[in-house]
Amino acid sequence: MQLPANLKSTNPGRLIVVLGPSGSGKDTLMSYARDQLAGRADVLFVRRAITRPADAGNEDHVAMTEAEFDAAIDEGQFALTWTANGLRYGLPRTIEAHLAEGRLAVVNGSRGAWNVIQQVFPSAVAVEIRVDPATLAQRLQARGRESASEIEARLERAAALDARLEADVVIDNSGEMHTAGSALVAYMTRAMGAGRLSE
Predict the structure, then answer these.
(1) Model-level pTM?
(2) Chain segment 50-70, per-residue pLDDT in tens
(3) What separation in angstroms does the CA of 173 have from each of 4, 141, 157, 167?
(4) End-to-end CA distance of the chain
């Protein structure tokens, strides 16, 4: 995990970090929120750089090779980078200019990197997307990307990380997507110009 030289951002804007295990529906909920808030200049949905192909997964990300990622680090393009599940992730420095204007930014984060994200962006708030274990297992199986043992390992890791994370708000996405999506949009709307939020 690599921190920027200045370590801590003093930007007045607010960063919402959406956290949750693979299969919880983070990308789907963020896409729903993006559609609902389309045209608003005061909210930025951050595209992460990830060392995986552009057509892998559901997230709209900037695909990079390992060499391209290394070059981007050398050029100072990232506000923060981390590694998870064999992939490297980077948040672009453009997020800093947006937050400096006192605006809202939303990013798909990583529970393992949450503590460091907080160090760099003290105004960050965690929105945890939870799904009951049985539903999560069904979703992971339906994707067909992993074996039964790999899914079991994911579920165990998810439970361990859930136990350590103290989120500012928890959204249950075990049921209808639009219900959880509406809850995320409502939280984001309240966050625009609000102080530290919790529920």
Answers:
(1) 0.81
(2) 998 877 766 788 999 999 999
(3) 34, 17, 18, 15
(4) 30
